[in-house]
From TrEMBL:
Keywords: Methyltransferase, Transferase
GO molecular function, one term: S-adenosylmethionine-dependent methyltransferase activity
TM stretches of this protein: none
Top-rank taxon, per record: Bacteria
Example GO biological process: methylation
Keyword Zinc-finger part of the UniProt annotation: no
Domain Methyltransferase type: 52-145
SUPFAM superfamilies: S-adenosyl-L-methionine-dependent methyltransferases
Lineage: Bacteria, Bacillati, Actinomycetota, Actinomycetes, Kitasatosporales
Protein name as it appears in the record: Methyltransferase domain-containing protein
Species of the source: Streptomyces buecherae
Keyword Hydrolase: no
């Protein structure tokens, strides 16, 4: 890593406590809050080359359909990445786990048929830059599949989310923000939303700041978006992938 560069693309993602508790709790949430079934829906019908962003401990890997030729799984956090490497061995498709962050993907432009994000766009430090990168690496017409939590539609919860995001939540939850308007940001980044469904997770019980979820498919528009030069990468000159130390 280039030593003094404070550009977000070169900063490590280091949330050791969060990473450990997430690794323990996420399988329970898959089972008890219905996230496992939503992951299946997220991935169904995928084919070709896929890049998964912020793969965590690899909970999606065993769920990829066999028609997927290859998954490049980006994970910047070292503990989760080690778990992801083990999970990759149990997948039915080849999964290559790569240390990098969404803001600077170390892959060629237009190299993938699909990009997958699950509960990640809340945590990336620079959402707009990340979405530009996701768009860059997708072939024209390629799909962005997303399962994300975001801004609640009720006023009281939306205010609560904003307050949490400005105070304790990101520090406690590995950089997570609860109030991002994911669908609006995806559109703004040059995707057309094919389908999306608003969900409450878990379906029953008291709503949590992360309960407003969306499961969707967006397609990369072929026309350049504001300020984009056709064919240019987000980072001409190519940064080294940001990574933390194992
Ligand atoms: C809540 S976890 C979700 C993990 C996994 N996608 C899942 O569904 O279980 C958020 C993930 O985003 C990753 N992350 C945080 N900042 C990131 C960034 N800038 N680029 C890519 N991934 C990031 C974290 O390391 C973590 O693995």
């Amino acid at each position: 890593m280039r030593g003094r560069n404070r550009d977000v693309r070169h900063q490590p993602v280091h949330h050791p406590l969060f990473a450990r508790s997430y690794a323990r709790l996420a399988p329970l949430a898959d089972e008890r809050a219905g996230l496992g079934a939503l992951r299946d829906e997220l991935l169904t019908g995928l084919t070709g080359r896929v890049i998964e962003i912020g793969a965590g401990s690899g909970l999606n890997f065993a769920r990829y359909p066999r028609q997927v030729a290859e998954v490049v799984a980006i994970e910047p956090e070292s503990h989760l990445r080690r778990l992801a490497v083990t999970a990759a061995l149990r997948a039915h498709v080849p999964v290559d786990v790569v240390p990098a962050r969404a803001e600077a993907l170390p892959v060629k432009s237009e190299a993938f048929d699909a990009v997958v994000t699950a509960l990640v766009l809340c945590s990336v430090q620079d959402l707009r830059r990340s979405l530009r990168e996701l768009r860059r690496v997708l072939r024209p017409g390629g799909e962005l599949r997303f399962l994300e939590h975001g801004r609640a539609r009720g006023r009281a919860m939306a205010l609560t989310q904003r307050a949490l995001d400005r105070t304790v939540w990101p520090a406690l939850c590995g950089g997570c923000h609860t109030s991002r308007d994911i669908v609006a940001e995806v559109r703004r980044a040059g995707f057309e939303i094919d389908t999306h469904r608003r969900l409450r997770v878990p379906e029953r019980g008291l709503p949590l700041p992360t309960s407003s979820c969306v499961l969707g498919v967006a397609r990369r528009l072929t026309l350049p978006v504001d300020g984009e030069r056709p064919g240019a990468t987000d980072d001409d000159g190519g940064p080294p992938p940001a990574q933390d130390q194992d």
